[in-house]
Design brief:
The protein is 64% helix and 1% strand. The chain is built from 54 helices and four strands. It starts with a helix and ends in an 8-residue tail after the last helix. The strands form two sheets. A two-stranded antiparallel ribbon has the order 1-2.
Length: 1213
């Protein structure tokens, strides 16, 4: 027993794996004990078995007899473990009930030496409820009894008849013990309502066990079933067949037992009719006539047989639905692969039991929650054709209401029904989107329900979700085609449509148009030419809107069609498609898979519809001149499609612009709305940019005058800029995409045209262009006279007076114009009191109306100015998009250099959106380009670099200096690529001088350190200026920054070529002298701080270490560092009180200098060809000892001089 005691502790662990591991160890150990157990004498065993079978069922008051039988048939450890496991079921510690119940179930399933009566007696004795127990103790006992009875059933001990008990003919289970277990479970259900469901679930498990047993194995099986059904459904007769049935109460638990019995024993249908009547009719729980009764049972809890009165026992509500729902769904919607056929009518059952009961208008939120759970469990079982059964009227109303408002009680759970996130709860995995992900063919059925009769066409908008949009993104191309066909079927109201239905039909058409647009604009939906492309003969998502169904489309729907057509094209223009051939894979933009522009497809469709004059006509008829112009444009577009591969992309960009102009001519609302000038410009530019072949006649109009014409690409870029000014999504997409295709043909003049759009302009000037022109014409003579009269006056005063006159005249003109518009007379000067007294009420009212109109005009002017400012900001952003496209498509173009200064100017703009976009374009796009322009104009590029450095010296922001620094590095790289090193070096040298010598300079050290790190070889040419910078620094901080730059330059010195080592040596020598002079001056003046001295010593150490690394490459570095000078300097630092702590750094310099000094002999030996290692080592050692002796003599001399001075300072070794 001592070997099993430690195993019981882990049975209570909260870790499932640890509990199962402890159970396995315990069961295996007990099996070994039982196998080696030696039984008692046969006489004692026989008497013990006889006593058990006589008393255990009828009397529970003899536990000693049962204990002796248990001990006689089992090993001591096994008997103890059975008792311990039974008692442990009542333990509230952690997961004791789970662990002990599993272990007890497994142990009872393997032992053949215990009986059901024995275990039941032990369980009842260990879980006896007394009046002295607390509430918690009572609950623990009841739970222990439930777990123990469930263990008896799950272990199979309830119906085990073979083998019999050892040395006895008695079976482990008898009809009496089986009946006792079932009666105990029913008593538990009656004792506590919250135990009823679990107790009857165990009863159903017992029913499964009885049904699975054979008559040979369990001969009393039928009797046990009859007794159970008799007790459950109240068939208690006091006379032969004539007694009235007892009026039992029907509960969900009783309904579950009846449903299980109906499934396990279908041959007893006649018995069910008698037992279940009159509550359950026809002997079938799933009969449609019983739906109302079942709904009442679920809604109210209990129903009596006689009058179906509700018995309210205070059963608390639980979020978990009753397990009988799983039984019902398994019967009516059996899972796939179960081999069971559906029973009953689920549609009728769901409508009555769920929709009209749990989702009724008067139902509580708790009942609605149950309805949502039932819906989720039924959703994965329903097929596509039967989804209408679930999306009923009340359910959709309740779901939409709770989904639309955040403050609704079931809002979060309503969202789970549509979600696919299964992290928060297990039922979320059965949401609508999750089901569609598993079977995409269900997507169309779900959309039809959500937007159908019980749903709402604006479901996503109404519920503030993206449910329909997400379902569409999961559908295949074939499913999208079926959805489009469904929408097209709803566009026609039929010839017999009533006038009252016209508004409904038009509203549905408007919604269908929006759905077509959503299909195109939804980026998650895979675009396929099969459903996107326009085929009038077959009907498609856009061409169908061009038909003339009955009733005809009104003007507002036609306008909506045109607008949505352009909106769809805006998305299709930017859509990329992959064309796979046998040879290669080609990526195409703005085109279908057969390499045809989407706009071209639209134009072809319009032209086909135009030729079908029997059914369709154009809204605005084309004049002969316009038609000839369109035909000429179409011929040019056809020629552009034949351009060879070399300029194919440019031809596609020109064709995109040309065909967009053709489309605009077709969809114009009136002849005046057609942009003839743009179409003519496109035709002319395309013809000049891509001349037609000699075989084809020239379709362009000849120009007889000799006036110089702008470049064709300039005209096209100007058209693109005009598209960006219009601000619609279609125009923006068209402009950016066509410029992307034409970026390779852009020239310097076109770049200048683009950059000129980024110049600052006052938006009020744009608004007042027309008014100012009229004002100038009206006041021309008066302004002239004013100018002649004041000709001899001062220029500034005359200008001011002219401006005052102009403003006063404009004000008078505006007042007069407002008066005429309002129907009132202009206001005259009424300075005298007599005229004021003559005003009557009507005149005063007229003045008030005029003043009100003036105030409205001023307010409107403010709003117009704000709108113009906003539009100007958006326009600049779109122009910068063109620059971004050009940088991405042409990274090695020299024109990118021209972008830097205009974009840098915009970074200082007051408009935050513009400044951030310009800064991002400079730092994230241009500055990080890896390509370098192969050829640049050195003069212009030098001006750009100088401009950047001038701006950097006056920039007041660290971020601005960083941006300028990045731009300067890019410009420098372009100049260095064409060997303009001196230009770059001169610009940075001037900025360095400004940084160190001018106190008001805004430059920082990072500006120069980035340059030194990026281009160390060019920066090496600035070594003279860098070396002189500390001496000329305006303050200590700038001097410290200069030392840091010199240190950075020294660290890059090892990367120089071998032929430049002499220059490096000369620089290091000059550096040593400069540093020594600086330190000596500090010691003499005593005006510098310790940190300044430390910076100088740090730089000296870097210089000495650099020399040590380079001395192996050249003898020029030998002897540069004089240890004698630094030794004297060391003594002076020690003599100075504030700098004594820096003596260690100076000693390191001395040590490095001594090492470099001894390298002189090594270099001579190498040149003389001496290779003896011992000689070289001896020379080195002797040189080192000699240097040490000289150092000691100097130190001793310094000590004596200090003692003579009487300073009394001590020198630490």
């Amino acid at each position: 027993m001592s070997t099993t005691l430690p195993l019981f502790w882990d049975l209570s662990s909260a870790d499932k794996k640890q509990r199962l591991g402890a159970s396995v160890k315990l069961i295996s150990t007990l099996e070994n004990f039982q196998a080696s157990f030696e039984h008692k004498s046969p006489e004692e065993d026989a008497s013990s078995s006889t006593s058990e079978n006589e008393d255990v069922i009828e009397r529970e008051e003899d536990p000693f007899e049962l204990d002796s039988t248990l001990d006689s048939l089992n090993a001591p450890d096994v008997a103890y473990s059975i008792r311990r496991l039974v008692r442990g079921l009542a333990s509230p510690r952690e997961s004791s009930r789970l662990g002990f119940a599993v272990a007890l179930t497994e142990l009872l399933s393997r032992l053949t030496t215990v009986s059901c009566a024995q275990v039941l007696a032990l369980l009842l004795d260990a879980t006896r409820v007394t009046g002295s127990q607390t509430g918690q103790e009572e609950r623990d006992s009841l739970f222990a009894r439930l777990f123990g009875l469930t263990a008896i059933i799950n272990s199979g001990l309830l119906t085990r008849t073979r083998p019999p008990l050892p040395r006895s003919t008695l079976t482990p289970s008898t009809p009496e013990s089986c009946s006792a277990v079932l009666d105990t479970l029913r008593e538990l259900a009656r004792a506590k309502s919250w135990l009823a469901e679990a107790a009857y679930w165990a009863v159903e498990r017992a029913m499964d066990l009885l049904a699975a047993s054979g008559d040979e194995d369990v001969p009393w099986r039928e009797d046990a079933v009859d007794a159970l059904l008799e007790d459950m459904f109240g068939e208690a007769s006091s006379a032969e067949g004539g007694a009235a049935k007892s009026r039992a109460v029907w509960t969900p638990e009783k309904l579950a037992v009846a449903l299980r019995a109906q499934r396990l024993w279908p041959q007893r249908e006649r018995e069910w009719r008698k037992l279940w009547a009159p509550t359950i009719k026809h002997g079938d729980v799933l009969h449609p006539a019983n739906s109302m009764t079942i709904a009442k049972i679920f809604r109210e809890g209990e129903v009596e047989d006689d009058d179906r009165a509700v018995k309210t026992l205070g059963r608390p509500w639980r979020p978990q639905v009753h397990h009988v729902w799983d039984e019902l769904l398994d019967e009516m919607l059996p899972p796939e692969g179960s081999g069971r056929s559906p029973k009953g009518s689920f549609q009728e059952f769901f409508r009555i039991v769920v929709d009209e009961s749990l989702f009724a208008g008067s139902a509580s939120n708790e009942r609605k929650y149950w309805g949502f759970v039932v819906f989720q469990r039924a959703l994965p079982r329903v097929k596509a054709a039967d989804l209408e059964m679930l999306f009923t009227k009340n359910f959709m109303r309740t779901w939409i209401n709770h989904l639309s408002h955040l403050d609704r009680y079931l809002h979060s759970f309503a969202k789970q029904i549509a979600s696919i996130d299964s992290t928060s709860c297990n039922v979320c995995a059965t949401g609508i989107l999750s089901v569609v992900r598993k079977d995409s063919t269900l997507g169309l059925s779900f959309i039809l329900q959500l937007t159908g009769v019980h749903g709402n066409q604006q479901f996503d908008k109404l519920t503030r979700t993206k449910t329909v949009e997400s379902i569409l993104s999961t559908m295949t191309a074939e499913g999208i085609k079926h959805y489009i066909a469904h929408l097209l079927e709803q566009t026609d109201g039929g010839p017999a449509s009533k006038q009252s239905d016209v508004q409904v039909i038009n509203a549905r058409r408007s919604w269908i148009i929006e759905q077509f647009t959503a299909l195109i604009r939804n980026g998650a939906i895979p675009k396929s030419d099969d459903w996107v492309q326009l085929r009038p003969s077959k009907g498609s998502s856009i061409s169908a809107l061009r038909t003339v169904p009955s009733p005809p489309y009104p003007d507002h729907l036609r306008r909506q069609c045109r607008e949505r057509l352009l909106s769809c094209l805006a998305d299709l223009i930017q859509l990329s498609s992959i064309a796979k051939t046998t040879d290669s894979v080609q990526k195409m933009t703005s085109a279908t898979r057969d390499d045809q522009l989407w706009i071209s497809r639209v134009i072809q469709t319009i032209q086909k519809l135009e030729r079908d004059n029997k059914h369709t006509v154009l809204l605005v008829e084309l004049e002969q001149e316009d038609r000839e112009r369109l035909e000429r444009a179409c011929r040019v577009a056809a020629w552009l499609r034949e351009v060879q591969e070399g300029r194919r992309e440019e031809a596609q960009g020109v064709g995109l612009l040309l065909q967009s102009s053709i489309l605009q001519s077709y969809i114009a609302d009136s002849p005046d709305a057609r942009d003839i000038a743009s179409l003519e410009s496109c035709i002319d530019s395309a013809s000049r940019l891509f001349p037609l072949s000699p075989e084809k006649p020239d379709v362009s109009e000849s120009i007889e005058d000799d006036e110089p014409q702008p470049e064709p690409i300039d005209v096209l870029v100007d058209l693109i800029i005009g598209f960006l000014e219009k601000g619609t999504a279609y125009m923006r997409a068209l402009g950016t995409q066509s410029f992307s295709l034409l970026s390779g043909a852009v020239k310097d003049s076109a770049i200048g045209l683009i950059l000129s759009q980024l110049e600052h302009r006052d938006p009020s000037e744009l608004l007042a262009d027309s008014d100012s022109e009229m004002g100038e014409n009206d006041g021309l003579s008066q302004n002239s006279r004013s100018g002649n009269d004041d000709q001899n006056d001062d220029t500034g005063s005359s200008t001011k007076e002219i401006e005052d006159d102009e403003s006063s005249e404009n004000t008078e003109a505006e007042d007069e114009e407002n008066s005429q518009r309002n129907g009132t007379s202009p206001t005259f000067d009424m300075a005298d009191e007599e005229s004021e007294d003559e005003l009557d009420d009507d005149q005063m009212m007229a003045i008030d109306d005029q003043l009100a109109q003036i105030l409205k005009d001023r307010e409107r002017g403010k709003k117009d100015k704000e709108g113009a400012q906003r539009e100007a900001t958006h326009f600049k952003n779109r122009v910068m998009d063109l620059l971004d496209i050009f940088v991405r498509r042409q990274p090695a173009s020299p024109y990118i250099l021209q972008f830097v200064v205009p974009l840098l100017t915009l970074t200082f703009s007051d408009e935050k959106q513009v400044s951030e976009k310009a800064a991002g374009l400079l730092k994230s796009r241009i500055s990080k380009l890896k390509e370098v322009p192969p050829v640049v104009d050195i003069a212009k590029t030098s001006e750009i670099l100088d401009n950047l450095h001038i701006r950097a010296r006056k920039a007041h922001s660290r971020n601005a200096i960083a941006t300028i620094g990045h731009c300067s590095l890019y410009i420098s790289r372009a100049l260095l690529h064409v060997s303009a090193d001196q230009t770059v070096r001169a610009a940075y040298t001037m900025s360095l001088v400004d940084f160190t010598e001018r106190k008001a300079s805004d430059l920082n050290a990072q500006f120069f350190s980035d340059f030194i790190k990026r281009y160390p070889r060019v920066a090496w040419g600035m070594r003279g200026a860098l070396l002189a910078a500390p001496m000329k620094a305006v303050n200590a901080y700038r001097r410290s920054q200069a030392y840091t730059l010199i240190e950075l330059l020294l660290n890059s010195a090892p990367s120089v070529a071998d032929n430049e080592l002499d220059e490096v040596a000369a620089f290091v020598g000059q550096l040593q002298r400069t540093l020594h002079s600086a330190l000596s001056s500090i010691c003499d003046t005593d005006t510098s701080s310790t940190s300044s001295v430390k910076e100088v010593l740090k730089l000296a150490l870097v210089g000495a270490r650099t020399t040590k690394r380079l001395v192996v490459k050249s003898d020029s570095f030998v002897g540069i560092w004089d240890p004698t000078l630094w030794t004297i300097l060391h003594s002076r630092l020690l003599a100075h009180g504030r700098f004594a702590g820096l003596g260690g750094m100076c000693k390191e310099v001395i040590s490095l200098a001594q090492t470099l000094h001894t390298s002189l002999n090594i270099g001579k030996s190498r040149r003389d060809g001496v290779t003896v290692t011992s000689k070289r080592k001896a020379d080195t050692d002797s040189g080192a000892r000699a240097g040490e002796k000289r150092t000691k003599r100097m130190v001793s001399t310094t000590k004596s001089s200090r003692r003579d001075d009487g300073s009394g300072a001590k020198i630490s070794s």
